[in-house]
Amino acid sequence: KAMLLIILTGFLSPVIIFQAAHARMGKRYLRMATLAPKNVGWAKNIRKIMHPALDRVTDGELKLKWYWNGIMGDDTDYIQKMKSGELDGAALTPTGLLMACPDMAVLLSPFLFRNYDEVDYIRNQMWPTFDSIAQKHGFKILIWADQDFDQIYSVKYKMNTWSDFQKARFAQWNGIVEEKTFAALGVTTVPLSVSEIFSALKQDMFDTYIGPAIWVVGSQLYPIFKYVNPIKIRYSPAGAVITLNVWKSLPQSYRDGLVDV
């Protein structure tokens, strides 16, 4: 019995200390990471709109602590750090979102959507299903956002003929659907993570990229690309998730607040 008491005390002491610390602080902070720079429009809206709204619905008791601009790595790192407990959540590009919910890959099918009205309809119909799938992988989807419709950018080619596609070297960064599409086309690809794209382009490892305009501008790549084909080749979702363990640990009022925000 004495040994059992010692073991239980060893396991429970950190929990008691953690809860006591939070009680003294009076607030709970969720550690969130993102590739987005702190001063892009999306990040400003998080601070100006989401944070005050969250304060209202939780009486200022639940806060989001953000690690901006990729200082905690890229989407792959965020997923790993959420699983290890180093992060509570993250705002993700399509790459990370598909790691949290692989079935959302269908949304990236080329030419699936023509406009945001069609996206909104599918979002309303499918969010509960995708969220349920994400929970089976250990995540809760808080936000399903629109990153943009992706366009084709190139340093060397206008990308309006099949010959251009055959000559181009594409950055392959956006998951399984992009990988399979490129394979079907038989084009040359260079597999990269999001965080590697900027340096790889500078080193001439690839010359053509399919992605959202907001990222091309925000990452300062637009002076390098000489051509853009503005066709809306695919829809590009983004999202914010937290771990299911963190979600279940929150009081119901906090959960309701996060959903309402």
UniProtKB/TrEMBL annotation:
It comes from the Bacteria. Keywords: Signal, Transport. One of its GO terms (biological process) is transmembrane transport. InterPro entries: DctP_fam, TRAP_DctP_sf. Coiled coil: none annotated. The keyword Aminoacyl-tRNA synthetase does not apply. The keyword Heme does not apply. Gene3D superfamilies: Bacterial extracellular solute-binding protein, family 7. NCBIfam families: TRAP_S1. Belongs to the bacterial solute-binding protein 7 family. This is TRAP dicarboxylate transporter subunit DctP. It comes from Candidatus Magnetoglobus multicellularis str. Araruama.
